[in-house]
Design a protein that fits this description.
heterodimer; A: mainly alpha; 12 helices; about 80% helix; B: mainly alpha; elongated
Protein backbone atom coordinates (compact mmCIF):
# COMPACT_ATOMS: atom_id res chain seq x y z
CA UNK A 1 0.00 0.00 0.00
CA UNK A 2 3.03 2.24 -0.37
CA UNK A 3 1.97 4.17 -3.45
CA UNK A 4 -1.65 4.95 -2.55
CA UNK A 5 -0.47 6.09 0.88
CA UNK A 6 2.01 8.62 -0.40
CA UNK A 7 -0.48 9.70 -3.03
CA UNK A 8 -3.17 10.24 -0.41
CA UNK A 9 -0.81 12.34 1.69
CA UNK A 10 0.35 14.27 -1.37
CA UNK A 11 -3.26 15.00 -2.34
CA UNK A 12 -3.93 16.80 0.94
CA UNK A 13 -1.26 19.42 0.25
CA UNK A 14 -3.01 21.14 -2.69
CA UNK A 15 -6.27 20.77 -0.77
CA UNK A 16 -4.87 22.78 2.11
CA UNK A 17 -3.58 25.39 -0.33
CA UNK A 18 -7.02 25.78 -1.90
CA UNK A 19 -8.61 26.09 1.54
CA UNK A 20 -6.12 28.67 2.74
CA UNK A 21 -6.51 30.75 -0.43
CA UNK A 22 -10.31 30.67 -0.23
CA UNK A 23 -10.43 31.53 3.46
CA UNK A 24 -7.80 34.26 3.08
CA UNK A 25 -9.68 35.71 0.15
CA UNK A 26 -12.94 35.71 2.06
CA UNK A 27 -11.42 37.55 4.99
CA UNK A 28 -9.63 40.14 2.89
CA UNK A 29 -12.05 40.81 0.08
CA UNK A 30 -15.00 41.76 2.25
CA UNK A 31 -16.01 45.42 1.95
CA UNK A 32 -13.57 47.47 3.98
CA UNK A 33 -11.25 44.53 4.52
CA UNK A 34 -9.83 43.67 7.90
CA UNK A 35 -10.06 47.27 9.03
CA UNK A 36 -13.78 47.62 8.32
CA UNK A 37 -14.51 47.81 12.02
CA UNK A 38 -12.56 51.09 12.26
CA UNK A 39 -14.26 52.72 9.28
CA UNK A 40 -17.40 53.53 11.24
CA UNK A 41 -15.48 54.64 14.32
CA UNK A 42 -15.48 58.47 14.43
CA UNK A 43 -12.41 58.49 16.71
CA UNK A 44 -10.23 56.91 14.05
CA UNK A 45 -8.98 59.54 11.59
CA UNK A 46 -8.47 58.61 7.92
CA UNK A 47 -4.72 59.22 8.19
CA UNK A 48 -4.53 56.81 11.16
CA UNK A 49 -6.31 54.26 9.03
CA UNK A 50 -3.77 54.73 6.24
CA UNK A 51 -0.88 54.36 8.67
CA UNK A 52 -2.45 51.23 10.15
CA UNK A 53 -2.97 49.80 6.68
CA UNK A 54 0.68 50.34 5.78
CA UNK A 55 1.88 48.96 9.10
CA UNK A 56 -0.16 45.79 8.64
CA UNK A 57 0.73 45.45 4.98
CA UNK A 58 -2.90 45.85 3.95
CA UNK A 59 -2.05 48.40 1.24
CA UNK A 60 -0.45 45.62 -0.80
CA UNK A 61 -2.37 43.67 -3.43
CA UNK A 62 -4.26 40.73 -1.94
CA UNK A 63 -2.15 38.08 -3.68
CA UNK A 64 1.02 39.56 -2.23
CA UNK A 65 -0.52 39.68 1.23
CA UNK A 66 -1.51 36.07 0.79
CA UNK A 67 1.97 35.07 -0.31
CA UNK A 68 3.42 36.82 2.71
CA UNK A 69 0.93 35.24 5.07
CA UNK A 70 1.51 31.80 3.55
CA UNK A 71 5.27 32.08 3.87
CA UNK A 72 4.91 33.10 7.48
CA UNK A 73 2.30 30.48 8.28
CA UNK A 74 4.44 27.67 6.90
CA UNK A 75 7.48 28.81 8.84
CA UNK A 76 5.55 29.05 12.10
CA UNK A 77 5.23 32.84 12.10
CA UNK A 78 1.47 33.35 12.24
CA UNK A 79 1.61 37.10 12.65
CA UNK A 80 0.52 39.23 15.55
CA UNK A 81 -2.91 39.49 17.11
CA UNK A 82 -4.72 42.69 16.10
CA UNK A 83 -6.27 42.97 19.52
CA UNK A 84 -3.36 42.57 21.92
CA UNK A 85 -0.28 42.54 19.69
CA UNK A 86 0.99 39.19 20.97
CA UNK A 87 2.15 36.50 18.53
CA UNK A 88 -0.83 34.53 17.23
CA UNK A 89 1.02 31.26 17.77
CA UNK A 90 1.32 31.98 21.48
CA UNK A 91 -2.35 32.80 21.78
CA UNK A 92 -3.34 29.58 20.01
CA UNK A 93 -0.89 27.36 21.86
CA UNK A 94 -1.87 28.61 25.30
CA UNK A 95 -5.53 27.76 24.60
CA UNK A 96 -4.84 24.39 23.03
CA UNK A 97 -4.65 22.21 26.17
CA UNK A 98 -8.11 23.25 27.39
CA UNK A 99 -9.67 22.37 24.04
CA UNK A 100 -7.79 19.08 23.72
CA UNK A 101 -8.92 18.15 27.21
CA UNK A 102 -12.53 18.93 26.32
CA UNK A 103 -12.40 17.06 23.00
CA UNK A 104 -10.72 14.03 24.60
CA UNK A 105 -13.34 13.88 27.33
CA UNK A 106 -16.11 14.22 24.74
CA UNK A 107 -14.64 11.41 22.64
CA UNK A 108 -14.63 9.11 25.67
CA UNK A 109 -18.15 10.10 26.70
CA UNK A 110 -19.54 9.81 23.17
CA UNK A 111 -18.02 6.32 22.80
CA UNK A 112 -19.52 5.30 26.15
CA UNK A 113 -22.97 6.40 24.95
CA UNK A 114 -22.58 4.95 21.47
CA UNK A 115 -21.97 1.28 22.23
CA UNK A 116 -25.03 0.56 24.42
CA UNK A 117 -27.29 2.79 22.30
CA UNK A 118 -26.23 1.17 19.04
CA UNK A 119 -26.36 -2.38 20.42
CA UNK A 120 -29.77 -1.98 22.02
CA UNK A 121 -31.22 -0.19 19.00
CA UNK A 122 -29.88 -2.85 16.68
CA UNK A 123 -30.41 -6.09 18.58
CA UNK A 124 -33.05 -5.61 21.27
CA UNK A 125 -36.73 -5.95 20.51
CA UNK A 126 -39.78 -3.95 21.55
CA UNK A 127 -39.62 -0.69 23.42
CA UNK A 128 -35.92 -0.71 24.48
CA UNK A 129 -34.89 -0.82 20.84
CA UNK A 130 -37.38 1.88 19.93
CA UNK A 131 -36.27 4.14 22.79
CA UNK A 132 -32.60 3.71 21.85
CA UNK A 133 -33.29 4.44 18.19
CA UNK A 134 -35.40 7.43 19.14
CA UNK A 135 -32.66 8.80 21.42
CA UNK A 136 -30.03 8.66 18.70
CA UNK A 137 -32.43 10.14 16.17
CA UNK A 138 -33.37 12.96 18.55
CA UNK A 139 -29.72 13.70 19.24
CA UNK A 140 -29.18 14.56 15.59
CA UNK A 141 -31.88 17.24 15.64
CA UNK A 142 -30.71 18.78 18.90
CA UNK A 143 -29.70 22.45 18.72
CA UNK A 144 -26.43 21.98 20.62
CA UNK A 145 -26.31 25.39 22.25
CA UNK A 146 -29.82 24.88 23.56
CA UNK A 147 -28.91 21.44 24.86
CA UNK A 148 -26.02 23.09 26.68
CA UNK A 149 -28.33 25.68 28.21
CA UNK A 150 -30.72 22.94 29.34
CA UNK A 151 -27.86 20.96 30.92
CA UNK A 152 -26.75 24.12 32.69
CA UNK A 153 -30.29 24.84 33.81
CA UNK A 154 -30.94 21.37 35.20
CA UNK A 155 -27.61 20.29 36.66
CA UNK A 156 -26.08 23.60 37.75
CA UNK A 157 -28.82 26.11 38.39
CA UNK A 158 -31.54 23.62 39.33
CA UNK A 159 -29.92 20.70 41.14
CA UNK A 160 -26.65 22.47 41.91
CA UNK A 161 -24.65 19.28 41.30
CA UNK A 162 -22.11 20.65 38.84
CA UNK A 163 -20.46 24.00 38.15
CA UNK A 164 -21.98 25.98 35.30
CA UNK A 165 -18.88 27.52 33.77
CA UNK A 166 -15.11 27.64 33.57
CA UNK A 167 -12.42 25.00 33.77
CA UNK A 168 -11.84 25.07 37.51
CA UNK A 169 -12.90 26.97 40.59
CA UNK A 170 -10.48 29.88 41.05
CA UNK A 171 -8.02 28.96 43.78
CA UNK A 172 -8.82 25.25 43.64
CA UNK A 173 -6.56 22.92 41.68
CA UNK A 174 -7.92 19.49 42.62
CA UNK A 175 -8.63 16.79 40.06
CA UNK A 176 -12.18 16.33 41.33
CA UNK A 177 -12.90 20.01 40.75
CA UNK A 178 -11.48 19.84 37.22
CA UNK A 179 -13.54 16.77 36.39
CA UNK A 180 -16.70 18.34 37.79
CA UNK A 181 -16.20 21.31 35.47
CA UNK A 182 -15.59 19.02 32.54
CA UNK A 183 -18.74 16.87 32.78
CA UNK A 184 -21.37 19.23 31.36
CA UNK A 185 -19.42 20.75 28.45
CA UNK A 186 -18.12 17.32 27.45
CA UNK A 187 -21.64 15.90 27.53
CA UNK A 188 -22.89 18.75 25.39
CA UNK A 189 -20.15 18.26 22.82
CA UNK A 190 -20.55 14.47 22.87
CA UNK A 191 -24.33 14.31 22.43
CA UNK A 192 -24.67 14.99 18.71
CA UNK A 193 -21.75 12.74 17.80
CA UNK A 194 -22.93 9.91 20.03
CA UNK A 195 -26.28 10.16 18.27
CA UNK A 196 -24.72 9.94 14.83
CA UNK A 197 -22.28 7.18 15.75
CA UNK A 198 -24.93 5.02 17.39
CA UNK A 199 -27.01 5.21 14.23
CA UNK A 200 -24.07 3.92 12.22
CA UNK A 201 -23.39 1.26 14.84
CA UNK A 202 -27.03 0.17 14.82
CA UNK A 203 -26.98 -0.31 11.05
CA UNK A 204 -23.64 -2.14 11.20
CA UNK A 205 -24.83 -4.38 14.05
CA UNK A 206 -27.99 -5.34 12.17
CA UNK A 207 -25.98 -6.15 9.03
CA UNK A 208 -23.34 -8.11 10.92
CA UNK A 209 -25.89 -10.06 12.94
CA UNK A 210 -27.27 -11.59 9.74
CA UNK A 211 -23.88 -12.80 8.51
CA UNK A 212 -23.11 -16.54 8.35
CA UNK A 213 -20.16 -16.46 10.74
CA UNK A 214 -22.44 -15.26 13.52
CA UNK A 215 -24.74 -18.21 12.98
CA UNK A 216 -21.66 -20.44 12.78
CA UNK A 217 -20.37 -19.15 16.11
CA UNK A 218 -23.72 -19.85 17.67
CA UNK A 219 -23.79 -23.30 16.12
CA UNK A 220 -20.41 -24.05 17.69
CA UNK A 221 -22.13 -23.50 21.02
CA UNK A 222 -20.87 -20.00 21.83
CA UNK A 223 -23.07 -18.22 24.36
CA UNK A 224 -25.19 -15.31 23.18
CA UNK A 225 -23.05 -12.88 25.17
CA UNK A 226 -19.86 -14.06 23.46
CA UNK A 227 -21.58 -13.98 20.08
CA UNK A 228 -22.68 -10.40 20.54
CA UNK A 229 -19.50 -8.99 22.05
CA UNK A 230 -16.94 -10.84 20.01
CA UNK A 231 -18.64 -11.75 16.76
CA UNK A 232 -21.11 -8.94 16.24
CA UNK A 233 -19.83 -5.87 18.05
CA UNK A 234 -16.18 -6.10 17.05
CA UNK A 235 -16.66 -6.19 13.29
CA UNK A 236 -19.56 -3.74 13.52
CA UNK A 237 -17.35 -1.20 15.29
CA UNK A 238 -14.89 -1.02 12.38
CA UNK A 239 -16.85 1.34 10.11
CA UNK A 240 -17.79 3.39 13.17
CA UNK A 241 -14.14 3.91 14.06
CA UNK A 242 -13.65 5.65 10.71
CA UNK A 243 -16.54 7.99 11.46
CA UNK A 244 -15.07 8.68 14.90
CA UNK A 245 -11.84 9.87 13.30
CA UNK A 246 -13.73 12.06 10.83
CA UNK A 247 -15.88 13.56 13.57
CA UNK A 248 -13.03 14.30 15.94
CA UNK A 249 -12.09 17.23 13.74
CA UNK A 250 -15.69 18.44 13.75
CA UNK A 251 -15.61 18.30 17.54
CA UNK A 252 -12.73 20.75 17.51
CA UNK A 253 -14.91 23.15 15.49
CA UNK A 254 -17.90 22.38 17.72
CA UNK A 255 -16.02 23.68 20.74
CA UNK A 256 -16.88 27.19 19.53
CA UNK A 257 -20.45 26.69 20.69
CA UNK A 258 -19.69 24.55 23.73
CA UNK A 259 -16.97 26.81 25.07
CA UNK A 260 -19.19 29.83 24.62
CA UNK A 261 -22.01 28.32 26.69
CA UNK A 262 -19.75 27.03 29.46
CA UNK A 263 -17.09 29.77 29.35
CA UNK A 264 -14.43 27.11 28.72
CA UNK A 265 -11.11 28.87 28.08
CA UNK A 266 -10.05 27.04 24.92
CA UNK A 267 -9.72 27.63 21.18
CA UNK A 268 -13.49 27.94 20.76
CA UNK A 269 -13.71 30.93 23.08
CA UNK A 270 -10.59 32.38 21.47
CA UNK A 271 -12.49 32.25 18.18
CA UNK A 272 -15.53 34.09 19.54
CA UNK A 273 -13.29 36.67 21.22
CA UNK A 274 -11.31 37.20 18.02
CA UNK A 275 -14.54 37.50 16.07
CA UNK A 276 -15.94 40.15 18.40
CA UNK A 277 -12.71 42.18 18.02
CA UNK A 278 -12.26 41.46 14.30
CA UNK A 279 -8.88 40.00 15.12
CA UNK A 280 -8.20 38.77 11.60
CA UNK A 281 -4.80 37.21 12.13
CA UNK A 282 -6.18 35.08 14.97
CA UNK A 283 -9.34 34.19 13.00
CA UNK A 284 -7.29 33.18 9.97
CA UNK A 285 -5.02 31.01 12.11
CA UNK A 286 -7.96 29.34 13.86
CA UNK A 287 -9.82 28.67 10.61
CA UNK A 288 -6.67 27.09 9.20
CA UNK A 289 -6.15 25.01 12.34
CA UNK A 290 -9.76 23.78 12.19
CA UNK A 291 -9.60 23.01 8.45
CA UNK A 292 -6.24 21.30 8.76
CA UNK A 293 -7.69 19.20 11.57
CA UNK A 294 -10.49 18.09 9.23
CA UNK A 295 -8.08 17.24 6.41
CA UNK A 296 -5.66 15.42 8.70
CA UNK A 297 -8.42 13.46 10.42
CA UNK A 298 -9.78 12.42 7.01
CA UNK A 299 -6.33 11.23 6.09
CA UNK A 300 -5.88 9.33 9.35
CA UNK A 301 -9.27 7.66 8.87
CA UNK A 302 -8.18 6.52 5.41
CA UNK A 303 -4.84 5.26 6.66
CA UNK A 304 -6.06 3.59 9.83
CA UNK A 305 -8.88 1.62 8.26
CA UNK A 306 -6.66 -0.99 6.56
CA UNK A 307 -4.78 -1.44 9.83
CA UNK A 308 -7.87 -2.34 11.83
CA UNK A 309 -9.75 -4.17 9.10
CA UNK A 310 -7.55 -6.81 7.45
CA UNK A 311 -10.15 -7.42 4.75
CA UNK A 312 -9.38 -4.19 2.89
CA UNK A 313 -5.61 -4.63 3.18
CA UNK A 314 -4.09 -4.87 -0.26
CA UNK B 1 -47.88 9.21 -2.56
CA UNK B 2 -46.73 7.84 0.74
CA UNK B 3 -48.59 8.54 3.94
CA UNK B 4 -47.42 11.69 5.67
CA UNK B 5 -46.66 10.10 9.03
CA UNK B 6 -46.46 11.92 12.34
CA UNK B 7 -43.41 13.92 11.31
CA UNK B 8 -45.08 15.07 8.12
CA UNK B 9 -48.12 16.25 10.00
CA UNK B 10 -46.01 18.03 12.61
CA UNK B 11 -44.12 19.79 9.85
CA UNK B 12 -47.24 20.70 7.94
CA UNK B 13 -48.85 22.11 11.10
CA UNK B 14 -45.74 24.17 11.84
CA UNK B 15 -45.60 25.62 8.35
CA UNK B 16 -49.34 26.34 8.31
CA UNK B 17 -49.19 27.96 11.75
CA UNK B 18 -46.26 30.10 10.70
CA UNK B 19 -48.10 31.13 7.54
CA UNK B 20 -51.17 32.34 9.42
CA UNK B 21 -49.24 33.70 12.41
CA UNK B 22 -50.52 37.29 12.03
CA UNK B 23 -54.12 36.09 12.35
CA UNK B 24 -53.82 33.51 15.09
CA UNK B 25 -51.10 34.99 17.26
CA UNK B 26 -52.63 36.15 20.56
CA UNK B 27 -50.57 39.36 20.69
CA UNK B 28 -48.40 41.39 18.35
CA UNK B 29 -44.85 39.98 18.50
CA UNK B 30 -43.39 43.32 19.59
CA UNK B 31 -46.26 44.52 21.77
CA UNK B 32 -44.78 45.66 25.08
CA UNK B 33 -46.64 44.93 28.29
CA UNK B 34 -44.53 46.61 30.91
CA UNK B 35 -46.81 45.51 33.75
CA UNK B 36 -46.40 41.85 32.86
CA UNK B 37 -42.64 41.70 32.36
CA UNK B 38 -40.88 38.36 32.92
CA UNK B 39 -44.25 36.69 33.49
CA UNK B 40 -44.35 32.94 34.12
CA UNK B 41 -46.44 30.89 31.68
CA UNK B 42 -50.12 31.52 32.45
CA UNK B 43 -53.55 31.41 30.82
CA UNK B 44 -53.07 34.88 29.35
CA UNK B 45 -49.50 34.15 28.20
CA UNK B 46 -49.14 30.41 27.57
CA UNK B 47 -45.37 30.53 27.23
CA UNK B 48 -44.84 33.51 29.56
CA UNK B 49 -43.43 36.93 28.70
CA UNK B 50 -39.90 38.25 28.25
CA UNK B 51 -38.04 41.11 29.93
CA UNK B 52 -40.01 43.70 27.95
CA UNK B 53 -43.33 42.01 28.56
CA UNK B 54 -43.60 40.65 25.04
CA UNK B 55 -45.69 37.50 24.69
CA UNK B 56 -43.35 34.56 24.07
CA UNK B 57 -45.90 32.45 22.18
CA UNK B 58 -46.54 35.27 19.73
CA UNK B 59 -42.82 35.78 19.23
CA UNK B 60 -42.33 32.06 18.64
CA UNK B 61 -45.11 32.07 16.02
CA UNK B 62 -43.56 35.01 14.21
CA UNK B 63 -40.06 33.63 14.77
CA UNK B 64 -41.22 30.45 13.04
CA UNK B 65 -41.73 32.43 9.85
CA UNK B 66 -38.14 33.65 9.93
CA UNK B 67 -36.56 30.37 11.01
CA UNK B 68 -38.54 28.22 8.57
CA UNK B 69 -38.04 30.66 5.71
CA UNK B 70 -34.28 30.82 6.28
CA UNK B 71 -34.15 27.01 6.44
CA UNK B 72 -36.23 26.44 3.29
CA UNK B 73 -34.78 29.20 1.16
CA UNK B 74 -31.18 28.53 2.13
CA UNK B 75 -31.74 24.88 1.19
CA UNK B 76 -33.02 26.07 -2.19
CA UNK B 77 -29.89 28.16 -2.71
CA UNK B 78 -27.74 25.23 -1.62
CA UNK B 79 -29.61 22.85 -3.92
CA UNK B 80 -29.26 25.25 -6.85
CA UNK B 81 -25.49 25.58 -6.44
CA UNK B 82 -25.08 21.91 -5.60
CA UNK B 83 -27.02 20.73 -8.63
CA UNK B 84 -25.10 23.14 -10.86
CA UNK B 85 -21.70 22.03 -9.59
CA UNK B 86 -22.61 18.34 -9.41
CA UNK B 87 -24.24 18.26 -12.84
CA UNK B 88 -21.33 20.05 -14.51
CA UNK B 89 -18.88 17.77 -12.79
CA UNK B 90 -20.74 14.55 -13.51
CA UNK B 91 -21.67 15.41 -17.08
CA UNK B 92 -18.35 16.78 -18.27
CA UNK B 93 -16.04 14.58 -16.23
CA UNK B 94 -12.30 14.83 -16.80
CA UNK B 95 -10.37 17.88 -15.66
CA UNK B 96 -13.45 19.96 -14.89
CA UNK B 97 -14.73 17.17 -12.69
CA UNK B 98 -11.41 16.86 -10.88
CA UNK B 99 -11.20 20.62 -10.29
CA UNK B 100 -14.78 20.95 -9.07
CA UNK B 101 -14.47 17.97 -6.76
CA UNK B 102 -11.27 19.32 -5.28
CA UNK B 103 -13.13 22.57 -4.63
CA UNK B 104 -15.95 20.60 -3.02
CA UNK B 105 -13.46 18.75 -0.82
CA UNK B 106 -11.95 22.07 0.20
CA UNK B 107 -15.36 23.54 1.00
CA UNK B 108 -16.23 20.48 3.07
CA UNK B 109 -13.01 20.80 5.04
CA UNK B 110 -13.68 24.27 6.42
CA UNK B 111 -16.06 23.90 9.36
CA UNK B 112 -19.16 25.66 8.06
CA UNK B 113 -20.31 27.20 11.29
CA UNK B 114 -16.98 28.98 11.73
CA UNK B 115 -16.94 30.27 8.18
CA UNK B 116 -20.52 31.43 8.51
CA UNK B 117 -19.79 33.15 11.80
CA UNK B 118 -16.94 35.11 10.25
CA UNK B 119 -18.99 36.10 7.20
CA UNK B 120 -21.98 37.00 9.31
CA UNK B 121 -20.04 39.04 11.84
CA UNK B 122 -18.25 40.96 9.11
CA UNK B 123 -21.20 41.59 6.82
CA UNK B 124 -23.99 42.00 9.45
CA UNK B 125 -26.36 40.56 6.85
CA UNK B 126 -30.03 41.25 6.35
CA UNK B 127 -32.26 38.17 6.33
CA UNK B 128 -32.09 37.67 2.53
CA UNK B 129 -28.29 37.90 2.60
CA UNK B 130 -28.26 35.50 5.53
CA UNK B 131 -30.25 33.04 3.43
CA UNK B 132 -27.64 33.24 0.69
CA UNK B 133 -24.76 32.86 3.15
CA UNK B 134 -26.30 29.77 4.77
CA UNK B 135 -26.93 28.36 1.30
CA UNK B 136 -23.34 29.04 0.28
CA UNK B 137 -21.97 26.76 2.98
CA UNK B 138 -24.46 23.97 2.32
CA UNK B 139 -24.19 22.95 -1.32
CA UNK B 140 -21.43 20.35 -1.09
CA UNK B 141 -23.54 17.31 -0.21
CA UNK B 142 -25.99 17.99 -3.04
CA UNK B 143 -23.10 18.44 -5.46
CA UNK B 144 -21.65 15.08 -4.48
CA UNK B 145 -24.87 13.10 -4.77
CA UNK B 146 -25.79 14.80 -8.06
CA UNK B 147 -22.38 14.03 -9.52
CA UNK B 148 -22.53 10.42 -8.34
CA UNK B 149 -25.97 9.92 -9.91
CA UNK B 150 -24.83 11.55 -13.16
CA UNK B 151 -21.71 9.42 -13.39
CA UNK B 152 -23.76 6.29 -12.80
CA UNK B 153 -26.42 7.21 -15.37
CA UNK B 154 -24.19 8.82 -18.00
CA UNK B 155 -23.30 5.59 -19.74
CA UNK B 156 -26.67 3.88 -19.33
CA UNK B 157 -28.48 2.82 -22.48
CA UNK B 158 -31.30 5.34 -22.42
CA UNK B 159 -28.84 8.22 -22.21
CA UNK B 160 -26.61 6.81 -24.91
CA UNK B 161 -29.69 6.21 -27.05
CA UNK B 162 -30.91 9.76 -26.55
CA UNK B 163 -27.54 11.07 -27.60
CA UNK B 164 -26.90 8.74 -30.53
CA UNK B 165 -30.32 8.16 -32.01
CA UNK B 166 -32.16 11.34 -31.18
CA UNK B 167 -29.11 13.58 -31.28
CA UNK B 168 -30.27 15.31 -28.14
CA UNK B 169 -28.38 18.37 -26.99
CA UNK B 170 -26.38 18.42 -23.77
CA UNK B 171 -28.94 20.63 -22.04
CA UNK B 172 -31.69 18.26 -23.02
CA UNK B 173 -29.84 15.15 -21.88
CA UNK B 174 -29.10 16.76 -18.54
CA UNK B 175 -32.59 18.06 -17.88
CA UNK B 176 -34.65 15.24 -19.34
CA UNK B 177 -32.56 12.17 -18.76
CA UNK B 178 -29.97 12.72 -16.06
CA UNK B 179 -31.65 15.06 -13.57
CA UNK B 180 -34.71 12.80 -13.08
CA UNK B 181 -32.36 9.95 -12.18
CA UNK B 182 -30.57 12.15 -9.65
CA UNK B 183 -33.78 13.67 -8.25
CA UNK B 184 -34.40 11.25 -5.34
CA UNK B 185 -30.88 11.65 -3.99
CA UNK B 186 -31.09 15.41 -4.45
CA UNK B 187 -34.40 15.47 -2.58
CA UNK B 188 -32.85 13.72 0.42
CA UNK B 189 -29.82 16.01 0.46
CA UNK B 190 -32.00 19.10 0.10
CA UNK B 191 -34.33 18.02 2.91
CA UNK B 192 -31.41 17.52 5.26
CA UNK B 193 -30.12 20.94 4.19
CA UNK B 194 -33.37 22.52 5.42
CA UNK B 195 -32.86 21.15 8.93
CA UNK B 196 -29.21 22.13 8.89
CA UNK B 197 -30.09 25.62 7.67
CA UNK B 198 -32.46 26.10 10.60
CA UNK B 199 -29.79 24.90 13.03
CA UNK B 200 -27.14 27.16 11.45
CA UNK B 201 -29.39 30.22 11.53
CA UNK B 202 -30.27 29.58 15.15
CA UNK B 203 -26.61 29.06 16.04
CA UNK B 204 -25.64 32.34 14.35
CA UNK B 205 -28.49 34.19 16.00
CA UNK B 206 -27.52 32.55 19.27
CA UNK B 207 -24.16 34.30 18.97
CA UNK B 208 -25.99 37.54 18.23
CA UNK B 209 -24.76 37.72 14.62
CA UNK B 210 -27.71 36.18 12.79
CA UNK B 211 -31.22 37.62 12.62
CA UNK B 212 -31.14 40.97 14.40
CA UNK B 213 -33.75 42.18 16.92
CA UNK B 214 -36.43 43.44 17.03
CA UNK B 215 -37.28 40.74 14.47
CA UNK B 216 -37.77 37.44 16.24
CA UNK B 217 -36.15 34.18 15.20
CA UNK B 218 -35.92 31.10 17.39
CA UNK B 219 -32.17 31.57 17.59
CA UNK B 220 -32.11 35.18 18.64
CA UNK B 221 -34.80 34.51 21.24
CA UNK B 222 -32.36 32.02 22.80
CA UNK B 223 -29.60 34.61 22.58
CA UNK B 224 -31.68 37.05 24.58
CA UNK B 225 -32.81 34.34 27.01
CA UNK B 226 -29.33 33.15 27.85
CA UNK B 227 -28.55 35.89 30.34
CA UNK B 228 -31.71 35.35 32.37
CA UNK B 229 -31.65 31.58 32.40
CA UNK B 230 -31.68 31.23 36.19
CA UNK B 231 -34.72 33.44 36.73
CA UNK B 232 -36.77 32.95 33.53
CA UNK B 233 -35.87 29.52 32.19
CA UNK B 234 -39.03 29.32 30.07
CA UNK B 235 -37.65 31.99 27.76
CA UNK B 236 -34.88 29.58 26.78
CA UNK B 237 -36.85 26.34 26.93
CA UNK B 238 -39.64 27.05 24.46
CA UNK B 239 -37.74 28.45 21.43
CA UNK B 240 -35.18 25.65 21.68
CA UNK B 241 -37.93 23.06 21.90
CA UNK B 242 -39.42 24.40 18.68
CA UNK B 243 -36.09 24.22 16.86
CA UNK B 244 -35.60 20.68 18.14
CA UNK B 245 -39.05 19.42 17.11
CA UNK B 246 -38.90 21.11 13.71
CA UNK B 247 -35.48 19.76 12.80
CA UNK B 248 -36.39 16.29 14.08
CA UNK B 249 -39.53 16.32 11.91
CA UNK B 250 -37.58 17.49 8.84
CA UNK B 251 -34.92 14.82 9.33
CA UNK B 252 -37.61 12.15 9.69
CA UNK B 253 -39.22 13.25 6.45
CA UNK B 254 -35.79 13.21 4.78
CA UNK B 255 -35.19 9.67 6.05
CA UNK B 256 -38.51 8.53 4.63
CA UNK B 257 -37.66 10.11 1.30
CA UNK B 258 -34.48 8.08 1.36
CA UNK B 259 -36.28 4.82 2.13
CA UNK B 260 -39.11 5.36 -0.31
CA UNK B 261 -36.95 6.30 -3.25
CA UNK B 262 -33.81 4.24 -2.85
CA UNK B 263 -32.65 3.07 -6.25
Amino acid sequence: MGVPLTRRIAATVPLLFVISAVVFGLLHLVPGGPLAVYLSNPDVRPEDLERLKRALGLDQPVWRQYAQWLGGFLSGDWGFSYSDGRPVVDRVVERLPATLELVAASLVLASLFTVPLGLVAGLARGWPARVAALLSFAGLALPVFWFGLVLQLVFSLGLGWLPSSGRNTPGLEGLADRLAHLVLPATMLAAVHAAAWSRYLRAAVIDTYALPFVAAARARGAGERVVIWRHVLRPALLPVVTIVFLDTALMVAGTVVTESVFAWPGLGSLFTEALARRDYTVLMALLMVASTAVVVCNLIADLVYPLIDPRVRT
Amino acid sequence: MKRLGVAGWVLLTLVATAAVAPWISPYAPDALDLVNRRGVPSMAHWFGTDDLGRDLLSRILFGARVSLAVGLLSALVAAGIGIGVGATSGYLGGGVDAALMRLTDAALSVPRLLLLMVASAVLSPSIPVLVVLVGLVGWMETARVTRAAFLAAREREFVLAARAAAGASAARIVSEHLLPVAAPAIAVAATLAVGRGILLESALSFFGIGVQPPAASWGNMLYQAQSTMSTEPWLALFPGLFIFVTVAAINTVGDRFGEGTRI
